[in-house]
Specification:
There is one protein chain. The protein is an all-alpha fold. Among the domains are: 143 residues, Serine Threonine Protein Phosphatase 5, Tetratricopeptide repeat (Alpha Horseshoe); 218 residues, no CATH class; 53 residues, no CATH class; 40 residues. The protein is 59% helix and 0% strand. The chain is built from 33 helices and no strands. Helix 13 packs across helix 14 and helix 22 runs antiparallel to helix 23. The chain starts with a helix and ends in a 5-residue tail after the last helix. The N terminus is likely disordered.
């Protein structure tokens, strides 16, 4: 017999299908479509909702569920092997027997309870339910001390045999006895006690008693049973598909809550055609085209009365998502949950009352538990919603649309663990540098040192995935540090690089930039080249943009603002991020323009590196290996990325530089610059220049010397003459 028959053919146990997607999991963004963010209400998550159905969750019972029959058998066999050792082969032989008598005989050598149980199991497998019931009763008739292994399984399967014989009362008693035994301490390695909820619920469904069945499935689901959750889903679908059952659901509180949960989380299954649910500015919006079943259900609930309704917040959310804003407005004030306040915020936005909406958002953020999450990646959930984060993010979106930039930053930072891209947009492109620095200084202290981290692809020590930094605080501080470095506020920047490896690289870059401002020409060239190398190799972590155009958030792997393919070897010019025309503050676009990358090119830090290399070449003697090598590296940094710019650097070498043996692979294979040789060359050039100037000036020096001698003689003669002349005064 299969383990599924022991654990009980878990009712309706189908594993949720997984939704396949191409490419990386880009994080959700709220600011891209602000109207949808502020007017749309995300759907719920059915699995989360049904965990809340049981009025009193049952005492803890083990749940053992698998859909793999081979794994089931292995689990059962391993349990029995622990009981009987090598004699476990007798149990397998009994299960393979053609009838009850043969099974009982095949188990000879095992204790009596095992022989009786295995005979009953064989009868059950062959559809001999009367024979199976007799054998299981025989197991249960043994003294308790003599049925310590199979007693619980016999009790559970006694319920299933009674159900197969349409003996509902006997089956219910057996299932209740199974749970009672486990609660008293009987071991349940196969989780048959939790499975018994589903078996008993099926009895109620067969009798047309939806309410009782839902109550039992809810108890099973509250144990975190996949079977219990999926059974509730299939029951909800069946009720919604049957108009008579759907109307009856209105009159039972628990059934009504299940249907509300299903329609709130899975209404798309009804293939409805939807339009936008509302408008922020209070303008009249066209209601959704609500499926007839949802409309009738909501009308029936309203007709039945809303005074003592339980779960008003979920019903209000369903009404809002279905375009019944009038009904949502009646229901939302009846609850003080986070979801009820969330609906109130949406309704206030529809009425054009932004202040009231902001207050409702604040109340919703307080009411939602910080660890509440909807989704967990099950079918039909494309975004795992953390309601508190989502509410904070929407509040930030509202504040941004009103030009309240620091308030927007605060709310979006509160939601940064889920909506980092939106937080980064405001921090990087909307706030001024001093506004961001003030915010970070006031609200974002350095995170404590993390325990020994696993190896990272990037030295920033901040990311575990695209857009999901392990510490939003560290990520925001690094974003500020990069902005400060780009603004050449070097000493300030270093304080915000918290990761030790990255801080060391930033220090090296800063030291090189500072060294390039003093010293002789070769020293400045050496420092400029060091800064250029640093900008090229580590630029994405030192001066790169978190979003466009560098997309540090994706480690530079993806460009979400790609201008398109080149035509006739001419690349289309890159355009900056476009601020939405709708729900944007009056000067948001101006702020974004002021913070754009310079140059506005993909991997802009490569161009910064090339500019630094060109500056290094300016300080070098042109006919030196160092001059050629610096330009060779600069060419290589853009040779595949931006050939026209690389060509300009190469042409400078051709025009000004010396012949070098590696010129044929210029930009591909480049030696390091020999700054010492360049210094010697510069010294020789200076000495030669001085000598040349001296040679050129010798005739003039001789004439000047002669004139000086003559003049000196004249002056001396005049002095002697004055001394010989008597004083006549």
């Amino acid at each position: 017999m299969k383990l599924r028959e022991l654990a009980g053919a878990l009712a309706l146990a189908l594993a949720p299908a997984m939704v396949a997607a191409c490419g990386p999991d880009f994080p959700s963004e709220l600011l891209r479509d602000r109207r949808e963010t502020l007017t749309g209400l995300p759907e719920g998550a059915f699995n989360f909702e049904v965990l809340r159905l049981a009025a009193t969750p049952p005492a803890s019972l083990p749940v053992v569920e698998t859909t793999d029959t081979v794994a089931d058998a292995v689990t059962r066999d391993s349990i029995e092997k622990g009981w009987w050792g090598e004699k476990q082969a007798l149990a397998n032989a009994a299960r393979s027997a053609p009838n009850v008598q043969a099974a009982y005989a095949a188990a000879a050598g095992l204790p009596e309870e095992a022989r009786r149980y295995l005979a009953g199991a064989a009868a059950f497998a062959h559809g001999d339910f009367a024979g199976a019931a007799a054998r299981f009763d025989a197991v249960l008739a043994l003294p308790e001390a003599e049925r310590t292994h199979y007693g619980l399984w016999a009790q559970y399967l006694r319920g299933r045999t009674a159900a197969a014989q349409h003996q509902a009362d006997t089956a219910r008693s057996a299932f209740e006895a199974t749970r009672t035994a486990v609660l008293r301490g009987v071991a349940d390695p196969l989780g048959v006690a939790s499975a018994s909820f589903g078996e008993e619920a099926k009895l109620a469904l067969d009798a047309g008693d939806d309410a009782t069945a839902i109550g039992l499935y809810a108890q099973q689901a509250a144990l975190n049973s996949i079977s219990g959750r999926d059974s509730l889903l299939f029951v909800a679908r069946a009720i919604v598909a049957d108009d008579a059952r759907l109307q009856r659901a209105v009159n039972d509180a628990l059934t009504r809550r299940l249907i509300v949960a299903y329609l709130f989380a899975r209404s798309d299954e009804l293939n409805e055609t939807q339009s936008e649910p509302g408008a922020v500015d209070g303008a009249t919006a066209q209601p959704k085209v609500v499926p007839d079943k949802i409309g009738k259900f909501l009308a029936a609930v309203e007709h039945a009365g809303l005074d003592q309704i339980k779960g008003a917040d979920r019903l209000a959310a369903l009404a809002y998502r279905s375009g019944r804003f009038d009904l949502a407005a009646k229901l939302a004030p009846k609850d003080t949950s986070g979801l009820a306040w969330w609906v109130r915020a949406k309704l206030a936005l529809r009425d054009g009352d932004a202040a009231k909406a902001a207050e409702a958002y604040a109340q919703a953020a307080k009411a939602f538990p910080a660890d509440e999450q909807w989704g967990n990646g099950q079918m039909m959930i494309y975004e795992a919603i953390k309601p508190q984060c989502r509410v904070e993010g929407e509040h930030g979106t509202l504040a941004l649309s009103r030009g309240e930039y620091l308030q927007a930053m605060q709310h979006l930072y509160n939601a940064a663990s889920e909506y980092w891209n939106d937080t980064a947009y405001v921090a990087e492109r909307v706030l001024t540098l001093d506004e961001l620095k003030g915010f970070v200084d006031a609200h974002v202290p350095a995170a404590p040192p993390a325990p020994a981290p696993a190896p990272q692809a990037s030295d920033s020590d901040a990311d575990t995935g695209y857009g999901l930094p392990t510490s939003p605080a560290t990520a925001l501080r690094q974003l500020l540090a990069r902005r400060l470095l780009r603004a050449q506020r070097y000493d300030e920047a270093l304080a915000y690089f918290d990761a030790p490896k990255l801080k060391a690289k930033a220090q090296a870059y800063v030291d090189a930039r500072k060294a390039a401002t003093h010293g002789d020409r070769i020293e400045r060239a050496r420092a400029l080249y060091a800064a250029a190398r640093s900008a090229r190799v580590d630029g994405i972590d030192l001066i790169g943009y978190e979003l466009d155009p560098d997309y540090r958030v994706y480690d530079g792997d993806f460009d979400l603002n790609w201008p398109g393919e080149a035509k006739d070897d001419v690349r289309p010019p890159r355009k900056d991020l476009v601020v939405p025309q709708e729900l944007a503050a009056s000067d948001e676009a101006q702020r974004v323009a002021q913070s754009r990358a310079a140059p506005l090119e993909r991997f802009h830090y490569r161009y910064v590196a090339v500019d630094l290399a060109n500056a290094a070449a300016d300080a070098l003697p042109p006919r030196t290996q160092a001059f050629a090598a610096v330009l060779c590296h600069a060419t290589g940094w853009l040779i595949d990325r931006d050939p026209p710019v690389a060509e300009k650097v190469y042409r400078r070498y051709v025009t000004q530089g010396p012949y070098v043996p590696w010129a044929a692979t210029f930009g591909r294979e480049c030696p390091e610059p020999d700054f010492a040789a360049a210094a010697e060359r510069l010294h020789r050039e200076r000495v030669a220049y001085v000598k040349h100037q001296v040679r050129k000036s010798l005739p003039y020096v001789a004439v000047a010397a002669a004139l000086a001698i003559v003049l000196g003689a004249v002056l001396r003669q005049r002095r002697r003459t004055r001394l010989k002349t008597p004083d006549r005064s």
